[in-house]
């Protein structure tokens, strides 16, 4: 066998091995990319559910009502190691639900206002939603919420995760909410004028 023929075979073999090596490397890189994408997706899913998983609601309930307005209450506990902020709420009992609190107005009356930055549940702590304090305001109720009926409330957290709560309706004579509305078909609801009598009778 001539030296030229041997060199040609050696060169061909080297090129074949190089191609195989490149293909293998490309496969490894693709596998790493897929693993990275899967890990990122898993991390995103974990982040989405982490805050909701840290919360638990104890003794949730809603004030029974015929129509108009009512509110949902309960104790919200945070078992996690980071603060969690509740930023909004929705319910199947009405088209509108907001996070509200009560504060003393200039005239000494308790005035209901919307909490625009939401409710902060401290790490390892809890907050209480109760008549005369923080609560989920349910407005525009068109069908009676009878005592014993389940009211579904969904709390949305600042990371986008949600917590579903079933708040059974109870008869309660306090927390008598009322709006001061202007007359006419175009009357607006003024949150600043909404008073709540939180004394049970």
UniProtKB/TrEMBL annotation:
PROSITE patterns: PROKAR_LIPOPROTEIN (PS51257). Coiled coil: none annotated. Residues 178-188 have a biased composition (Acidic residues). Residues 168-201 are annotated as: Disordered. The keyword Signal applies. The keyword Kinase does not apply. Keywords: Signal. Residues 1-30 form the signal peptide. It comes from the Bacteria. PANTHER family: BLR7088 PROTEIN, COPPER CHAPERONE PCU(A)C. This is Copper(I)-binding protein.
């Amino acid at each position: 066998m001539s030296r030229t023929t041997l060199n040609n075979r050696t060169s061909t073999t080297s090129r074949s091995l190089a191609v195989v090596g490149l293909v293998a490397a490309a496969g490894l890189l693709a596998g790493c990319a897929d693993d990275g994408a899967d890990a990122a997706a898993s991390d995103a899913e974990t982040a989405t559910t982490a805050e909701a998983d840290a919360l638990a609601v104890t003794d949730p309930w809603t004030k029974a009502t015929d129509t108009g307005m009512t509110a949902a209450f309960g104790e919200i506990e945070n078992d996690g190691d980071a603060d969690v902020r509740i930023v909004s709420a929705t319910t199947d009992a009405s088209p509108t639900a907001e996070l509200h609190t009560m504060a003393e107005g200039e005239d000494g009356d308790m005035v209901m206002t919307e909490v625009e930055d939401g409710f902060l549940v401290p790490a390892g702590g809890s907050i209480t939603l109760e008549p005369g304090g923080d609560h989920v305001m349910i407005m525009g109720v068109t069908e009676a919420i009878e005592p014993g009926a389940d009211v579904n409330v969904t709390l949305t957290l600042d990371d986008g995760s949600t917590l579903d709560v079933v708040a059974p309706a109870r008869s309660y004579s306090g927390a008598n909410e009322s709006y001061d509305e202007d007359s006419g078909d175009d009357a607006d609801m003024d949150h600043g004028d909404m008073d709540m009598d939180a004394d049970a009778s």
